[in-house]
Specification:
The complex is a heterodimer of chains A (167) and B (134).
Chain A: H1 9-17, H2 26-33, H3 57-81, E1 91-94, H4 96-104, E2 115-118, H5 132-164
Antiparallel strand pairs in A: 1-2
Helix pairs in contact in A: 3-5
Chain B: H1 5-29, E1 45-51, E2 61-68, E3 74-77, E4 89-92, H2 97-129
The chains are: A mainly alpha (167), B alpha+beta (134).
Chain lengths: 167, 134
Amino acid sequence: MVMVVPGTADDLRARSAAPRHGSADPTSRTSLDVRPAVSGGTCAPTLPFERPVIADATMTALHAALTGLQQRSEATADNIANIDTPGYLASRVDFESTLRNELANGETATGGEGAVTQSTDPTNMSGNNVNLDTETTIATETGLRYQLALNALDSKYSLLRSALRTS
Amino acid sequence: MSTFDVLRISGSGLYANRKWMDAVSDNLANINTATATDQSAFQERMITVKAADYGSGQGGVQVTGAQFGSAEGRLVYEPSNALADADGYVRYPDIDMADQMTQLIQAQRSYQANLSSIDRATDAYKAALQLGKG
């Protein structure tokens, strides 16, 4: 959408760089096609690149939360699958601390890869420390929070759709 | 971490518990299988599993194989049995019924726990697939 207004300094420079008389050199033609991206010489308004419309802070934060919650539900499923595996220690996922720090510092929320730690709960005779009650509670909570984040993201999308509706 | 990983992980749990139940039912079906004393008794089947490392992005449980119980079994005096040796003994497998039933219930409950995991994941995935439609 960047249009070059004829006569700007960069345009003149581009023209003077090209050979004055017609030649078969293809590079001389392409050099005219290359439009210099100068802020002063465009008719389009300056786009707010720093604040994207769709992937804004809320969207990226919600997306990071969804990814983290998804990772946690995988860990819980893994724990439940290994409920009778001797020597298995339950894994716990923490993505909130990274996400909270990123949001507090005004960085782009990625959530990163959630930190996986092993539970320090006491083990049973076979060296396994998966507790079905704990896992079910975590899984239910994770599921509900996942739905919550989805609803929030959905609301953002409908807001965006309302803005895009022309009539 | 792929898209529907919970289903794969819980599926591996279902598979492992199914194998466990298979082994237990095999043991129970053969609990009264008598053999001649010059042969080995029916050996109890035990499933061995190991956790597929979650940190490596795999997750789930793997059935690594089976172990077999005592081949010696227990000798029972049963002179009327067609397989009895000269002293009237036959070999029975050394399997404890109560132990097998406990294992069966344990495997059954774990199977159900994995099924609930799948249910929960399905709900979440279904909701995610509705995103942006409302």
